[in-house]
Amino acid sequence: MNLYYWPTPNGHKITLFLEEAGLPYQIKPINIGAGEQFHPDFLKIGPNNRMPVIVDHAPADGGAPISVFESGAILLYLAEKTGKFLAKDLRGRVQTTEWLFWQMGGLGPMAGQNHHFVQYAPEKIPYAMDRYVKETNRLYGVLNKRLEGREFIVDAYSIADMAAYPWIVPHERQGQNLDDFPNLKRWFNAIAARPATIAAYAKGEGMRKTPTMTDEEKKILFGQTAR
Fold first, then answer.
1. Is CATH 3.90.1150.10 correct for 2-84?
2. DSSP assignment, residue 28?
3. Residue ranges of the GST N-terminal domain (predicted)?
4. Does the pTM of the predicted model rise above 0.90?
5. Cα–Cα–Cα angle for 70, 42, 114, nearest 5°?
6. How many other CB atoms are found less than 10 A from the CB of residue 173?
7. What class has domain 90-193?
8. What integer pLDDT is reported at residue 217 of this predicted model?
9. What does the angle CA 146 – CA 148 – CA 149 come to, to the nearest 5 degrees?
């Protein structure tokens, strides 16, 4: 398994799964600040010029290698390949995919816009900042309510948890206080302590040369058009 990766929340989702499942894999760094996601060879497997992407050289059908882009699709692919972290009963599977898509369509994009307008935008726009900080807060509340009386998002640890957790890691930068969400905080701390989580995050340590984004990196990441 090759993993085209950079240490972002979406990248961390996949290392979380691979470490939990014990699948052997090789990281192929894609430095998104340097524009490596636009390289023609990468675009053949990642047409949205985004990482992560995996290439499975031992697919279940025994055929040619399979590439998968989009982190949610990758998690589903890996869960189906291994038979792990996705409920086998109908109702459990439905709930797991519901919450996976909730993260993909809600928590990730809204927290991402929060990061952009609060941390990176060259002009501080109060309306945009307030809009996305509040929407992030609402989504935290949704997850907190879901976790009431539950150890994980669905009964057992699953790809739904792996998808959501990395987007909660930067909660302070998102203007959120986990003390306001006790169920979520308990869940967050439990996942953070898992050996596979520790190992997954260690994979990305040292990849970024600077702790903050340079102006040149911002131009590459935030100035994209179809051209």
1. no
2. E
3. 1-86
4. yes
5. 45
6. 12
7. mainly alpha
8. 86
9. 125
> What is the C-alpha separation between 168 and 141, in angstroms, rounded?
12
Q: pLDDT tens across 178-215, in order?
A: 999 999 999 999 999 999 999 999 999 988 766 678 88
* DSSP bridge pairs for 4: 28, 53
Identical fold between 2-84 and 90-193: no
* Six token digits for residue 18: 């691979």
Q: What is the pLDDT of residues 149-174, one digit of tens each?
A: 999 999 899 999 999 999 999 999 99
> How remote is the C-alpha of 182 from its chain's centroid?
22
What are the structural domain ranges in the chain? 2-84, 90-193
Chain centroid, CA 45 distance in Å: 18
Tokens of 33: 């600040």
- For the CA atoms of 87, 168, 31, 3, what is the dihedral angle to 10 degrees? -10
| % of residues, the chain, pLDDT over 70 | 99
Per-residue pLDDT at 64? 98
Report which DSSP code applies to 189. H
The percent of the chain in helix, strand and coil, each rounded to the nearest 5, is 55, 5, 35
